[in-house]
Amino acid sequence: MNAPQSVNIIMIEDDEGHARLIEKNIRRAGIMNEIRHFTDGTSALDFIFGDAAGPACNGPALVLLDLNLPDMSGTDILAKIKGADGAVKRTPVVVLTTTDDSREVQRCYDLGANVYITKPVNYENFAQAIRQLGLFLSVIQVPDPSGAA
Amino acid sequence: MMAGSNGSDDNLGRRLTGFMAVGFIALIVVGIAAAWTTHRSAAHIRWLAHSYEVQNAILDARQIVERGETSRRGYLLAPEQRDFLTIYRNSTVALPAAMKRIRHLTRDNPSQQQLYARLLHQVSLLAMIRDRSIALVFAGDIAAARAAFDTEHSALPMARIRDTLDQMADAERRLLTIRERDVIDGERLFYAVLVIAAVLLGMVSIVSLLTILGYTRDLTQSRDALRSLNANLESMVRDRTADLTRANDEIQRFAYIVSHDLRSPLVNVMGFTAELESAAAPLRALVDRVDAEAPALADEAARFAAREDLPEAIGFIRASTQKMDRLINAILQLSRQGRRTLAPEPLDLARMVDQIRETLAHRLSAADAVLEIEGRLPSIVSDRFAVDQILSNLIENAVKYLRPGVPGRIVVRGRPEAGRAIIEVADNGRGIAPSDHTRIFDLFRRSGAQDRPGEGIGLATVRALVFRLGGLIDVESRLDEGATFRLSLPTTLASQEPTP
User: Fold this and answer.
1) Range of the domain at B273
2) Is residue A3 included in any domain, yes or no?
3) pTM (predicted TM-score)
4) Given this model, what pLDDT does residue B1 score?
């Protein structure tokens, strides 16, 4: 019943380069969890809410969310995730974007974002921020899918 | 339009004054005419009365003469009747007085005087004849007296006297007619003057009234025109302002989006450059190992590529991307400042400059420079952050571009000028060539020797901020003669709606 479940990482990022760099650095940090990459919001939401492997039906997940997507705004996705109930609502969301506009950051936190990371152009900082995600992943409480909470 | 209405004001004033003058002159003329005609008719009436008096006197004299004649004849016919004699004597006594009165009254008239002289002669002749016949009766010679009366042609002198008196009366009647006509003419003249004056006054009033009415109508029209023009102007200003605000918002959004979207690929360039660099490290190690263990395997090109080309290329890519990142950040910062809501508050510029001096203390002493405030700085109500940024940037620039070997002196001074505050930041530094005065305010543009770090952002930010505060900035400078940046800010910045 309480079989150990690994946390799936759902990366919503339209820039292939960014996705590759994020993935590289996550791996470099020693995190070997499965990473599912979506380049648009629609398919990502489909997966989160409908897919058998998604957090709605299946085990815990972590969402890495870029705010600039081709089909919808990242904040809309954030609002949908945090506006849902059950397991999806409890899914941690890490906003990863180029914007460091304080109003935008504030808005994301207001919508329920758990962490906000600005993609710095300085690569060392970027890599470090991603690696810190590993630390973050090790401390997040994995939501109990049985809903005992 | 204004000048025209002013001119017509003057014109109107002149015309109304003219009309009033004409009216007053008409009144004065009427007054004089009235006085003159009254005076004249009084004189005419006096003369008229005089003529009547003369006529009366003539009639009196005639009556007395006739009475004397009748009583004499009666006495001659009935001497026993003493009454006739009494009447005769009375008339003889009365006649000189009557004659004297005629002479007195006709003193002014030579022709009447001539007639009077004739009359006097005829009357005295008659008196002599009469006295003789009366004396004959007294003497008892009634028959002789009667005969004398018959023969003396007594009727002849009498007829002459009557004729003369008639002539005098006629003359006087003629005079009377003339004088009556004079009186009537005088009255007519008076009425004519009165009517002319009344017509004149009426015309003046009507013309004045029409002028005033016309002027009032013009005034109303021009006021209406002015009002609609004003309303137009206001809506035009509103439209223009809305256009400008829209355009400005559009530019801000554009700058924001562009700078934002430019960052995304830059993250990749930087990231994969770093990956390339880390990938180059093992390659370099490999070349080193090959060099050490089997030098025959490595050729010059491979060695050069691993040790020189790759690090050099990566270094240039890095430097360029870093610069690009700084530029993009500058645009982002500018656009952010454009979106910031200004909060006007009373500012103490002297204290602000003091704080800037403290912040720059180290750099000032390193550059052997002083920052001074000259005189009193004007007090203004404006956005603290923006003004601080403007002054900081200008002063920092002054410190940055001093002349080597010359002790720097940076002076901040100011004065109020017609609702605006003029603030100057002057230095004795290297100065700016006049051809670059406009250019230095453009983003990413710099001037002079490029021997100091910088992206050409400071003055562009300053200008953007000054414009946002409703101000102007210009520079006065020549190469090697220092520079003076002159700010003109509104004394009080109106607080504004936050830009959406």
Assistant:
1) 245-337
2) no
3) 0.53
4) 40
